Amino acid sequence: GAGVSQSPRYKVAKRGQDVALRCDPISGHVSLFWYQQALGQGPEFLTYFQNEAQLDKSGLPSDRFFAERPEGSVSTLKIQRTQQEDSAVYLCASSLAAVGAEQYFGPGTRLTVT
Amino acid sequence: QKEVEQNSGPLSVPEGAIASLNCTYSDRGSQSFFWYRQYSGKSPELIMFIYSNGDKEDGRFTAQLNKASQYVSLLIRDSQPSDSATYLCAVLIYNQGGKLIFGQGTELSVKP
Fold this sequence. Notes:
Largest interface: A-B, 29 and 25 residues
Oligomer: heterodimer
Largest sheet of chain B: 6 strands, mixed
């Protein structure tokens, strides 16, 4: 079946612009995660949804970052007033179960802030 | 101390050899362990997961877990040039929700 999809795959934003990154999880997957991956590093957790409920947003680096999953399927990560340090690959992952199941990653969105 | 530590490498092995990738973790509450492979410019791809002490084999891959030593490893038998990638170790701590905590990854290079 179809895997996790993300769009856009690449985004260039000028500093100060707002961006919105979309994630479409595997159909039927309850849990959805956002991670941020800097070059040469492992992914770092940003936030987690179980269905439409955002259960953990402890990894969001500032109040400029906001995520939603209003109908329990597609999720959007929004970054307001982008800064250069926001440049990274943003990965979305989904899993079938609430906790503990394997997570499957989408292709990621590479954000470059100039 | 980082929660999950891996040698960044690069680890270089000849084709056909066994590649051994290691990972240590600091939180004794860690309960599930995952190995992901990440090719350059691509997203992480799940290879194996392990929950219980001991070995788990899947084809050319074997994951080994020792909770007493807080150590998890991945062995790749008969390494192929196509195995050249970065291997990410991730742990899941149930009382921290469902998030994965990743190491920085070990770069593996398999030389023909």
